[in-house]
Design a protein that fits this description.
Layout lengths: L2 H9 L5 E6 L6 E10 L4 E4 L2 E2 L2 E2 L7 E8 L2 E15 L2 E15 L7 E11 L13 E8 L3 E7 L11 E8 L2 E15 L2 E8 L4 H19 L2
Antiparallel strand pairs: 1-2, 1-6, 2-3, 3-8, 4-5, 6-7, 7-8, 9-10, 9-12, 10-11, 11-14, 12-13, 13-14
Amino acid sequence: MGPAEFLSMLSGNLGSKVTLTIEAGLYKGTYPSRVEDVDAEAVGLAHPMMKGALLPVHRSVQLKMSVEATGALYLCEVSIVRGLIRQSVPLLWVTPEGEARRMQRRQHVRVPCLLKTGLFRLENEEHGPEKEEWVHVVAKDISLGGLGFAVPREKETYFAQGGRYLLEIALQEKKQLLLGKLVRKFQSGELWEVGVAFEGMPSLVEKTLRGFIRQQELAERQL
């Protein structure tokens, strides 16, 4: 993931847990932090502490940064660009240097797919699905924990972080209904990447989905 895409993803995940690593020198060690702000070129982190005081840092020093966001762990090298106190919160601004690598950190195996999926927003639950608009997408990956898809810019506003949705998934030639919560959303080029986590699953649907995932795994191995 390039620096611009990485920053775009972080802008939708403020508060994400961060670990900064200094590999050599007087202040060698790991320091916890979190994402507080993001601009076009850098990310503002809660300034790491050392023995009850702000960690001494210098501009242009390179660090290793790991971020827990969107259900995965991202690793990248960053360089310090400035320090700033905003509303009494000390921030350390760093800019990504090169690609951010995504490390898989999922409880469930995720497989690629092309599944027709309908989503109905539940924020106005007094209205039935027959009176509200369904939005249809094609899921590009799925696991027992949720699914992911991409939508064009004109559909982006329908998908709100933390929003709850009724899902209709065409699985094994049969439509399955599930509840889901939007847990990931960030811009990637001209599209928006969206991730929805399932909220519980009937045993019969789980059995069907397990079978589908197994088929997809076997198909991948044969490629």
